[in-house]
Amino acid sequence: MTIEPLLKEKAPTVQAIMPTERFTLRPVKRSDAGLLGLYLGDGRVAEMTRVIPHPLPPEYVTNLIERSAADDRIEDFWAIDGTAHGHAEVMGVVKMARLDRNQSEIRYWVAPAFWNTGIASEAVAAILQANPQGATEIYAEVFQDNPRSARVLTTAGFAYLGDAEAFSVARNKVVPTWTYIRKMGAPA
Fold first, then answer.
1. Nearest 5°: CA angle at 88, between 85 and 94?
2. Cβ atoms within 10 A of the Cβ of 77, count?
3. Whole-model pTM?
4. Are 103 and 138 in contact (CB under 8 A)?
């Protein structure tokens, strides 16, 4: 099962800012480029995603930042910013893509220095609580060789839908995935 974003009406210009106990989810900004380049250039991060290439092309981070600020975007990006709590300005990123029929897809990555700290679980929980795109259903997928990321989803209330496959640019091959759904109810 492949979930691809569909171009819909113009996205809101302003993204929600979501504080948590250990960090703030806030829109990605230009000053994030250095840390984004450092983390996205790490093969361990890239290989757990569909779209991040490895090695990372020089223009990749600039394009991501420009895409995240576009008024006609179909994806919203939030930096996991720990500066208010004495952590790094970027510890990872959460992305939500608008899909058809009031649905969204969530994707996320955390920098290796913050793996196994609960950062991903807290970020996903914050996004679900805020439901910034007003989705009635949120989909997610993880590579089957990343069971910790699957645990993040199941802990957040996602239900397993089935096995599938997705192409990983960094791995240059099709990788088995697990697909999940979280029913959110009617939008507010």
1. 95
2. 22
3. 0.90
4. yes
